[in-house]
Structures are given as structure tokens and as C-alpha cells.
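Sequence decides. Our protein:
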Amino acid sequence: RNCADGNPCTADLCHSQFGCQQTILSGIPCNDASLCTRDDRCSSDATCTGTPLCSDGDACTTDRCDSATGACQGQEPVNCDDLSACTVDACDPVGGCSHAIDFGACPQEVIGITLSNSSPSGRGSGSLRWSSAHEWNLGGFNVLVYNQQGAAIRQNDVLIPCFECVTGEGALYEFIVPKHRSGRGIFVELIGRDGASLGTFGPAQKSP
């Protein structure tokens, strides 16, 4: 059986039980067939890659090279636009593209906090629902009920985990509040990944 896959960066063999097998030959010399690179070697993903011959050392430019002749054809600016309205895009000549979060444009906050009159847990409990607008560096949520003395009492035994956490997207959440009387004293607290409080939002609004 012919197990050759035509890739110089793999060793091809046939196993009596499993059939054709390929082993990646990472680090060995190879030829990527381009005059624009030197010191071509096999990478860990079984591709042959080399060091560019035509490089200005600036991570903010793309260096163009004629692969047939190896001649430099100039440089073009790198496009660092990540198409997100929530980031400030920039480029550093050493580090390349960066995307700093613009919390002013896309703040981390809790919206749409509502409390229903009933829940599957039985009489006296209610379903608290809320949404996160954006999640950039969240660890989770706390549900707080303020008593008549103004003290906050946490309703959740453990931190309510976030769904998106670092993606920048928002998500919908639900929590069963036991023995509530009204939604006026119920709030949702944002907790960062470092455990710090990022703000408290509410009170919850009653819903049917």
C-alpha cells in the first residue's frame, strides 16, 4: 500500500492495524519553493516555512516579494481593523496589531433586570432575569437583596458564572430568588475575573 502523502514534512508508514500513518518531522530542512524565504524548515503543523528575505523589520507593514525572482517590491501597511466598535485599533512596529477595549463605547453593565411573580421553585420565590451588555473581563455575578437597614445580603451561595466572560458579547441569565416580596431591593453585582466588584445594577423591575 502506498502511504506517501507528498508532504516532505511527514514520515509516511503503514501500520498493520491502523493503516497509513504520518509522523510530523518538525524542525528538519525543507524547501517551500519560494525565492522570498531562506532557512526553510518544517513546522509543528507539517508545513514548510522559511524566514522572509525581504523584511524591513516593521511589524506594521507587509513586505512584498517576487517569489519567482526574490526581488523586493516594497511594503504595504498592515490592516489592524478588527471590525469591532468596542476596540481602539493600533499598531506597534515591534508587537504588531493591538486592540484595546473601549469601555466608554461598550461598557460592562447589567441591563433588563426583571423579577417574575412565580418560579418553578414554588410559592414565594421568583425568577430574576437580566442581561449583560458586554463581557470583557468578567468572573461572574452576585444577586444582592438589601434589607431595611441598607445591608446587602447575597442570595447565591457561589458566584454565578458568566457565559461570555472575555468575548465582548452579552448573554441572558436567570436566577431563582427565594421568598421575595418585591423587586425593589434586588440588585445584580458584576464581579471581575480578579474578584473585584465592577458595579451594582438595579433594582429589579417586577414583571408578570
Q: What stands out?
A: The mean pLDDT is 89. The first strand starts at residue 10 and ends at 15. DSSP finds no helices and 17 strands in the chain.
